[in-house]
From TrEMBL:
Residues 138-306 form the Coenzyme F420 hydrogenase/dehydrogenase beta subunit C-terminal domain. Residues 54-129 form the Coenzyme F420 hydrogenase/dehydrogenase beta subunit N-terminal domain. This is Coenzyme F420 hydrogenase/dehydrogenase, beta subunit C-terminal domain. Pfam families: FrhB_FdhB_C, FrhB_FdhB_N. InterPro entries: Co_F420_Hydgase/DH_bsu_N (IPR007516), FRHB/FDHB/HCAR-like (IPR045220), FrhB_FdhB_C (IPR007525).
Length: 421
């Protein structure tokens, strides 16, 4: 996984890095950046500032099939290029080098089409930013919330980049994954990490709901193998497998500092459709115009959503980033650790004992996943990872079902009180 290396850095360089890091107390938080940029828009404590909120997708099913969700992200980026609003798009694509995925630059709609879908992988902006800095061209940058915020910070201290990065396109984020996620999914499908050549994290399956997608892996010179993601040990995002520690301190789900953000509309009325549907939040009038023209010419289907529905589409994320974050901050403070300043107040108030246990168990599982998978790669036995991880997941499920039956009991009691009342 990519990690900042401060070896040999001077105090001045460290101060500069501090002002750019999205998790540092020395940098502006998402509320401040958004207020400066989109201060005339209404604000919601969960999704940030918003101009419009929609669920939607492309009307061309063939295009949608090649995308993770409704295909609106790659389409919108293509529009930015076609309308010459930017000279290039900086996004994650298949790397073709030592890593499976990495940040790349697309300069045509065809380039963009070749790198669609979600890449749940740890990447760095370092090389690509170095490559384009001062080249006199303009770019749209695509990223999960912390990458977009880092670019906002960087633009404040670098006038070249400030002029060059004219569009910030966010992806809703549950948490990032390390390279181990791809390797673990592949190994569970029978492809050892050293043989893994390609992975597609999001293959749609017409026989299931949109959240129950497949993944496909390919070993060098072999036919691809496909499996249902939720059937993999670590396929559920709730288990937090291979989640970098920084994500434990993130409170931004809807990339609040981006001009437009795309995610999955994980709401029953949309997940029934296996093809996938986006949730989209805009923060710039020209983004709304592009979407509206897409609707007018029949390329795009959109339905308005309320802020509540948009937030509901990421209900699990908000539990992790709000109550979960409060508990993790309070735990670390109680342990004498330093924590970053966040937009939630550390504490346990209003969080049930079962939920607290679940939050702590998920955090422990993230740590365990890294240690155990590293051991698996050393021993060359997948069971060095799956055995302890399976036991941890069983503990997690036990706490979860205890919490659920408790709330079922609480609901039954409330119903009987109401009946009596
Ligand atoms: C780590 C991660 C976690 C996510 N978590 C959630 C979540 O919890 N809830 C949710 O609703 N959505 C989440 N998403 C977003 C979701 O997976 C889809 O990317 C989104 O719905 C867009 O779908 P689409 O069909 O419009 O995109 P496509 O039309 O398939 O286009 C995707 C575009 O995003 C770019 N891209 C893919 N991965 C990355 C990356 N890692 N960094 C930068 N650019 C990238 C591609 O290059 C492509 O241009 C997450 C995405 C990532 C990368």
């Amino acid at each position: 996984m990519h990690q900042a290396d401060l070896t040999g850095a001077t105090p001045a360089q460290i101060r500069q890095a501090d002002s750019v890091c999205p998790f540092s107390d020395a940098s502006k938080d998402e509320d401040r950046i958004a207020a400066e940029r989109y201060g005339d828009l209404p604000s919601d404590s969960r999704i940030g500032r918003y101009g419009s909120i929609h669920a939607g997708r492309l009307t061309d099913d063939a295009r949608v099939m090649g995308s993770s969700s409704g295909g609106l992200t790659s389409w919108f980026l293509g529009e930015l290029l076609d309308r010459r609003l930017v000279d290039g798009v900086i996004h994650v694509g298949r790397d073709g080098g030592r890593e499976l995925f990495g940040y790349t630059i697309s300069r045509s709609a065809e380039d963009l089409l070749a790198s669609r879908k979600s890449m749940y992988y740890s990447t760095t902006l370092a090389e690509v930013v170095r490559e384009v800095r001062g080249d006199g061209l303009t770019y749209a940058i695509v990223g999960v919330p912390c990458f977009i915020t880092a670019m906002r910070h960087l633009a404040e201290v670098d006038a070249d980049l400030r002029a060059q990065f004219t569009w910030h396109v966010g992806l809703v984020c549950g948490h990032l994954k390390s390279q181990f996620f791809a390797e673990s999914l592949a190994w569970q499908a029978g492809v050892r990490p050293e043989h893994l050549e390609a992975i597609d994290f999001r293959v749609k399956n017409p026989s299931r709901r949109s959240y129950s997608y497949d993944y496909e892996v390919r070993a060098h010179g072999r036919l691809p193998r496909r499996r249902r993601t939720l059937s993999a040990l670590d396929g559920s995002w709730g288990y937090g497998a291979f989640q970098p520690a920084a994500c434990n301190f993130c409170d931004d789900v809807f990339a609040e500092t981006s001009d437009i953000v795309f995610g999955d509309a994980w709401l029953p009325r949309y997940t029934d459709d296996w093809r996938g549907t986006n949730v989209v939040v805009t923060r710039r009038a020209d983004a709304d115009l592009i979407l509206a023209e897409g609707v007018d010419d029949g390329t795009v289907l959109l339905e308005p959503l309320t802020p509540d529905l948009a937030a509901q589409s990421q209900a699990g994320n908000f539990r992790h980033r709000r109550d979960g974050l409060r508990v993790r901050l309070a735990d670390d403070l109680a342990a004498g650790l330093s924590v970053p300043r966040k937009r939630v107040v550390p504490g346990y108030e209003g969080v049930s004992a079962d939920r607290m246990a679940l939050i702590r168990q998920r955090r422990a599982m993230s740590v365990l996943s890294f240690e155990a998978f590293a051991r698996s790669k050393q021993t060359r036995r997948l069971s060095s990872y799956t055995r302890p991880m399976r036991a941890a997941i069983a503990r997690y499920r036990k706490v979860e079902s205890a919490g659920q039956s408790l709330s079922t009991r609480a609901r039954a009691k409330l119903r009987s009180l109401l009946r009596r009342g």
